[in-house]
Amino acid sequence: MQQPRKTASESTHSTPAFDTDDSNHTACTAESTTDLLTVEGLRVQFPSPDEPVRAVDGVSFGIADGEIVGLVGESGCGKSVTARSIIGLDPPEAAVRGSIELDGTDVTAASERQLRRLRGDTVSMVFQNSMETLNPVLDIGEQIAESTKVHDHPDSQRLLDYLHAPLFSSRADWHERREHAAELLDQVGIASPEERVDDYPHELSGGQIQRVAIALALASDPDLLIADEPTTAVDATTQAQLLDRFRHLNDTRGMALLLITHDLSVVAELCDRVVVMYAGQVVETGPAGRVLRDPSHPYTRALLNCLPQRVDRNERLPTIEGAVPDPTDDRSGCPFAPRCERATDDCRHGDVPTIDLGDGRGTATCYDVDDSRPAAPYNRPGITVTAGEDESDPTREPTTAAETPAAETPSSESTARSSTREKTRPESTADGDRQPLVELEGVTKRYATANGLIDRLFGATATRRAVADVDLEIRAGETLGLVGETGCGKTTLAELVTGLETPTAGEIRFGGDPVGGVESRSAETLADVGVVFQNPRSSLNPRLTVEQLVAEPLRSRGWSTGRRRERVRTVLDRVGLSEHRARSYPHELSGGQVQRVAIARAIAPDPTLIVLDEPVSALDVSVQARILNLLSELQAEFGLTYLLISHDLAVVEHVVDRVAVMSRGELVEIGPVDRVFDQPTHPYTKTLLASIPSLSPEETTGVRPSASDGVSSSLDRPTR
Amino acid sequence: MDDATYLLHRLGTSIIVLLGVSVVTYGLLFLTPGDPAEVILTQQLDRQPSASEVESFRATHGMDDPVPVQYVSWVTDVLRGDLGTSYYSDTAVSTLIVDALPLTIELAVASLLVALAIAIPTGVLSAVHRGSAIDYASQLGALVGVSMPNFWLGYLLILVFALTLGSLPVAGAGSYGQLVLPAITLGTGMAAVLTRLIRSSMLEVLDEAYVDTARSKGLRERIVLYKHALRNALVPVVTILGVQLGSLLNGAVVVEIVFQRPGLGMLLVDAVFERNYPVVQGITLVTAGIFVGTNVLVDLSYRYLDPRVELGGETV
């Protein structure tokens, strides 16, 4: 463990300045040269058959020592590409221009040797999808030991030593490093680290993997940690612990953090400053509190408006019409202009100035920044995307949507149709009157963990209880939310309802009749339940077209070709996919479109119950809002009943009528969502709810217990 | 499944495989036309044997019993460790095999080493420089290597290195010099197959996120490639290696003839021509045993290469 950095320079607070002479978007250059990281005019292009793909298109920002900066924006906006450029890991075919000054070295021009030193000493990165970022054939201790070894001896790396070849490798040294690895694991909150050191990645849970990935990054004691969506794949309680860990590391080690996320509540919880990216460009920067409370750029505003936590339960979520522009377009002007209602001709041509908002409030690359705006930041008239507006003016066509092949097709029709729709959600008190559609009585599911012949011969019957004695009813027409940590049995319970698993004990009834697993269910019962699986991209056969995918459940139920075609067309239209999409393959579609296909497939046989397993967890907030809107439209139109599994409690709170909380296979609490969220009775529910990061900027700005203690006062953290 | 159970299980299936192999070869030999006793005696005596000579030969070698009975008595002998006696020299078959086997194993191991020494760097380089001149050259080389028959390459090498340059011995066995040309001959084909396999396997692995993680630590590219990527890429390669062993033993037969190495292959070919059935039987059985045994080793090595592998999977 190193002592915290002692480079206490004076103010490194980078006040970005508006430079009128600078014609491109490199305007928000940090003045200070003592910044740990200064990115200036970064452009990353990938060759493609036609125009080069401009993944990053003139990005400039800085990070001071010990600062926590959030890089936000929807997927495809260039966040990850920017991050990879900072650590010098651009794919070989990428053309990188601009400069990235990291601790005094320009990464874009650095030699292999310099890069190795930077990576081993100055910067570390936690990649997205940490499940895949650990080497499956090396144990955890080895992977961490390597990092510390590189950190200590970046220039003398001998292959035979790293391969542990006898004579070329010091066993004692590696052994010592493994012990140090256990310490690092302990620091990131892994229980019994001495044993975990010998584990392989597949033996750990998702949350543990994420912690290991962080420990791996910390092994080289970096000055800057880049974390790409570090909490996206973990449940709320793990997320809270990880965020807490980041803050602690920042406080004690003075480690700067670049946090890439699409989750604005994480930004609110942790970040000092935010950089908002859109279509490869920085559109807004500023202190986290200011940006979240009082966003200046229309895109930031729109993004914040899409969050379910900001909208009343019975309201439609606002969405951003159109799609991120095709990065191959030779564009000029503001990239957001096509989706922005306030866009003028000025916005569509030439370069849009980056305007300093003054008083250290950051910058916004927009003409429309005017400080005399009314104080109430949300639902301001004139923003493209507020719910009230959509309803007051249902005839308004969405602004020109980008006509890109991979883009989300705007479901303008459905938006217009549904905008006047009254959500027929009954009062919670009336719920008891509804007929139960599905009833579970004492349902238990055990999995055998010992399955060898010998084990069975000797009667070793080790089992794991995935679902324990659950009584539950799903009422016709309601949305029942199912929440709980990873591994609590949510998905198993859903599989029991759909018949993919059969209960070890207990009974499941549909409309009063007991049903078994899929093979014993009647065709009618099967057609009654639709499923939208977690991660639609991997649950849809990549070799089938959209049309075939949606028609598949119909064919297996004996529909005729003509009837099938008719139904597929209706359903695709209903979920907002245009007809020419029918012949596309899943890989040609965007995340939101794939999810629409999965939904179309689920509703095609006209079911009464749809099981939704994390239907929006992989989607950006604006797409998430559209899908959630679509789901509630479909529910009202077809009288569907939903069983929604989600770890995103904000989503759950927004869409469900009743919520069931599971912990360790047991149902610990169930009730109307308002009651459960406002007055949780079970201690587990309370813990779960407490772990939701708050989006309210007021609660986070200035309250962080950081700059007060002795350690961090020696650091040049910007104070604001 | 623990190791002991797994090995017991594999032992059981191996015995069934070996029994099957012996039944098939036994059956095939006796289905070949002509009375083996007559053929053998004709060759031994260099004249047409008399009826009494044939009869006494058949009696000594138990050929008068029905084939199933002969087979059962052969199997019983084998289980007692007795592979029988050669029809010609009255030497025990086991002695013949023990004399010849080391030469073949030496050749197989040497050619495997040659193959790996060529295939690993070429395959890795080819994958790293995908689409470059290096890649095309190595792929072309692999194509040539796969297409070239062993015996032709063998004679070509003899022609160039032994006869023209005189730098290496033409034939025979015993010294390392005499091993070089056969090992190259036999190893080339395998190297070609492995190069292509390692290339495609590496290409897949290099796209994996953990390779970037390794780079982001600041590791040298060589360590990233040969420690992090190659070990993952070798898992499918080892599977093929086990299967390729069969073709290696096949190839050894040809190569031993070409280079006049008195190994198992040469012994087998001679025995087949002489209808020396006990020798053919013995060699087939031993070879099958080696093949089965190596594949058990290959399966065991998976767990070393990939800790996610559980021996025996879920089916027992």
From TrEMBL, chain A:
The complex is composed of two ATP-binding proteins (NikD and NikE), two transmembrane proteins (NikB and NikC) and a solute-binding protein (NikA). PANTHER family: NICKEL ABC TRANSPORTER, ATP-BINDING PROTEIN (PTHR43297:SF13), OLIGOPEPTIDE TRANSPORT ATP-BINDING PROTEIN APPD (PTHR43297). The keyword Transcription regulation does not apply. It catalyses: Ni(2+)(out) + ATP + H2O = Ni(2+)(in) + ADP + phosphate + H(+). Keywords: ATP-binding, Cell membrane, Ion transport, Membrane, Nucleotide-binding, Translocase, Transport. GO terms for biological process: peptide transport. PROSITE patterns: ABC_TRANSPORTER_1 (PS00211), ABC_TRANSPORTER_2 (PS50893). The keyword Membrane applies. Its EC number is 7.2.2.11. One of its GO terms (cellular component) is plasma membrane. This is Nickel import system ATP-binding protein NikD. SUPFAM superfamilies: P-loop containing nucleoside triphosphate hydrolases. Residues 1-27, 319-437, 691-720 are annotated as: Disordered. It is found in: Cell membrane. Residues 397-418 have a biased composition (Low complexity).
TrEMBL record, chain B:
PROSITE patterns: ABC_TM1. Its main location: membrane. The chain crosses the membrane at residues 12-31, 107-128, 140-163, 175-194, 233-259, 279-298. GO terms for cellular component: plasma membrane. It is found in: Cell membrane. Gene3D superfamilies: MetI-like. CDD domains: TM_PBP2. GO terms for molecular function: nickel cation transmembrane transporter activity. It comes from the Archaea. Residues 101-298 form the ABC transmembrane type-1 domain. Pfam families: BPD_transp_1, BPD_transp_1_N. Belongs to the binding-protein-dependent transport system permease family. OppBC subfamily. This is Binding-protein-dependent transport systems inner membrane component. It comes from Natrialba aegyptia DSM 13077.
